[in-house]
Design brief:
The chain is an alpha/beta fold. The protein is built from four helices and seven strands. The chain has a single domain, classed as P-loop containing nucleotide triphosphate hydrolases (Rossmann fold, 3-Layer(aba) Sandwich). It has a seven-stranded mixed beta sheet, covered by helices on one side. It holds the Pfam family TsaE. Keywords: ATP-binding, Cytoplasm, Magnesium, Metal-binding, Nucleotide-binding, tRNA processing.
Length: 156
Amino acid sequence: MDYEVTSLTVEQTRELGKRLGECLRGGDVVALIGDLGAGKTAFAQGIGEGLGVAGPMTSPTFTLIHEYKGYADESQIRLIHMDLYRLRHPEEAEIIGIEDAFVDDAVCLIEWPEIAKDYLPDDRLSVEIQGSGDMPREIIFRALDSSWKQRLTFLS
């Protein structure tokens, strides 16, 4: 199932991320797809806000992984934010322990997930952001598992 939403501003992109963050729960994996400048960081910051992450969130471009404390369903969870842009070979995703992040007490958000597609769980939400610069963004939410349909009602 696919849902497509248009975002006209960075604030709207961040708000969509926040709304998604409010319906995430431990064990969820979100694959964030988009070109440089598409708004992935703004969307990720919104997810963090929706999960109650305190303090600023930045893209882990150089460190590959940032971890934050947040809350889902009134339980403390970890938000594990990965940026795989600098990886050149799929095996590098395994070396950094990507699969270790797919656990029940964490939400895993992965930017540039294409390099690690063979390591990602089937039950994940893909969010593709199309557009850059001052142009509107088309944000496509794509899930294979039907359980996402109930949680993504804020998109309809």
